[in-house]
Specification:
Bound molecules: zinc ion
CATH architecture of one domain: 2-Layer Sandwich
CATH topology of one domain: GMP Synthetase, Chain A, domain 3
Strand content: 15-25%
Helix content: 25-40%
Oligomer: single chain
Number of helices: 12
Length: 457
């Protein structure tokens, strides 16, 4: 019971850290800590934030008697953060150490500005330190291909967190020139790489094509969802283990990270309380059921967020983690709700299944997919067009043959096949070896959608 078998996955180091932070010796103690921290957060938000004073009107901290009472709190949305801005703050402007401005392609209007105090930044550093101990060891060197080279940015925080465990982090920022990044990787005697999934895949596949690829101990993928096929390709090229990190700026950059069992994320449970809620009525769902991921900050000083809707779709894994940890496991996030397109036939298309089919093809570096003319009106007769653009390494291959192959791979995706069979969908595939404008570095990849005017509600 105490130790995993020698060959089995090592228990996540997040567990002793989370329990120690909560002053708990077991799960019941952790839940008592979370309840206490939730009440304190509600009390603080109500008295210090003009937004929450109104938003939580009629609700007292004493009304929260169990963690189930979390459901009595209203959600906080991205629009609230965008619209209310500084009114969410619980500290004076002088206590704000860092502001991260988020612009998204999803909406127009004011950007989101997330504020952090020095104490908030320290909690992120602490999580990065414990989270990275899953995949690197003292003495290792890590190439960091994430933005934020400046003090307080994500790359910089990660570098400082690694230094706490005697690991050297080299921050290069997102990949803008693949050959240059590959050169740095080849020369740097690195043990691990941290980066954005498609960017890291692009490096691995180019490295393989150039011959004699580097060998790495581990890779951490962050910022966007990581298709399984992409993970397998990186693992086989560099002979490494690939771990997935889940985190958004709103979570305080870090939310959770996989353990060696790769069964899903163990979460930063002393700082964040996660729920999965029903998409239609907002009710918290039992483990095993898919819904929207919602989190509440328990220790955030500058800008607490209560029941913040992430727009990510996932579920809690109902089984205990094979690593032996008692912490909850959130299944790897594969898709954003905004990236799901409902066809007239009722079929739902999203990028995740297409990604699995397409990234499994050799030499695929990136995929962009868009649906035009999709209608949410059931029974609408018009067919939508699924347009797939694929960036492929190398110019040797017959492009038409590759496009046919990609088309056949897509036909294996049940939602695509069903919609094509029902004459609801036409698929167009185009492959290129560049130039490529499909992905903008740190932006999350999504199935883009363009409604045709006549079916717009
Ligand atoms: Zn585990």
């Amino acid at each position: 019971m105490k130790a995993s078998p020698a060959a089995g996955p090592r228990r996540t180091p997040l567990e002793p850290w989370v329990l120690a932070r909560a002053g708990a010796s077991d799960l019941a103690g952790l839940r008592r800590y979370q309840l206490r921290a939730l009440r304190e957060t509600v009390a603080r938000a109500k008295t210090r934030s003009p937004f929450y004073a109104t938003h939580l009107d009629g609700l007292e901290p004493g009304d929260i008697r169990s963690l189930e009472d979390l459901a009595r709190l209203p959600f906080t949305t991205a629009d609230d953060v965008r619209r209310e801005g500084m009114r969410l703050l619980c500290v004076g402007a002088g206590d704000v150490e860092r502001i991260v401005t988020l612009t998204t392609s999803e909406t127009t209007g004011a950007p989101k500005r997330i504020h952090f105090s020095a104490a908030d930044q320290e909690l992120t550093l602490d999580f990065f330190h414990r989270g990275m101990s899953v995949l690197v060891d003292p003495g290792d060197r890590v190439l960091i291909l994430l933005p934020g080279e400046r003090p307080g940015g994500v790359g910089d925080l990660l570098r400082r967190a690694l230094a706490r465990m005697d690991v050297e982090g080299v921050v290069r920022g997102p990949v803008t020139d693949a050959q240059e990044a590959l050169g740095a990787l080849g020369d740097g005697r690195f043990d691990a790489v941290v980066g954005i999934p498609v960017q890291v895949l692009g490096l691995a596949r180019r490295d393989a094509l150039a011959g004699d690829p580097v060998r790495l101990k581990s890779v951490l993928l962050s910022t966007d969802h990581a298709p399984e096929a992409l993970v397998r390709a990186i693992e086989s090229t560099w002979g490494c283990r690939v771990f997935d990190h889940y985190g958004t700026t709103e979570m305080g950059l870090g939310g959770g990270v996989e353990c060696e069992a790769h069964a899903g994320y163990h979460l930063r449970e002393a700082d964040l309380l996660f729920e999965v809620v029903d998409l239609d009525n907002g009710v918290a769902l039992p483990d095993g059921e898919y819904g929207e991921v919602v989190f509440t900050t328990l220790t955030r000083e500058a800008m607490p967020l209560l029941r913040y809707r992430t727009g990510d779709r996932s579920r809690f894994v109902p089984a205990a983690c094979p690593c032996g940890s008692r912490l909850r496991v959130l299944e790897r996030v594969r898709t954003r709700l905004a990236g799901r397109v409902r066809l007239g036939s009722g079929a739902v298309l999203d990028l995740a299944a297409m990604d699995e089919a397409l990234f499994a093809l050799p030499n695929v570096l990136d995929v962009h997919a868009g649906v035009a003319g999709a209608s949410s009106v059931a029974g609408d007769g018009a067919a939508a067009t699924l347009k797939i653009d694929i960036l492929v390494a190398g110019t040797e291959d017959d492009r038409c043959a590759f496009e046919r192959r990609a088309g056949r791979a897509l036909a294996e995706v049940p939602a695509v096949a069903g919609a094509v069979y029902a004459h609801q969908l036409v698929v167009e595939v185009a492959a290129t070896d560049g130039p490529w404008t499909g992905t903008n570095g740190t932006m999350k990849r999504m199935l883009s959608q363009a409604h045709s005017p006549e079916v717009r509600a």
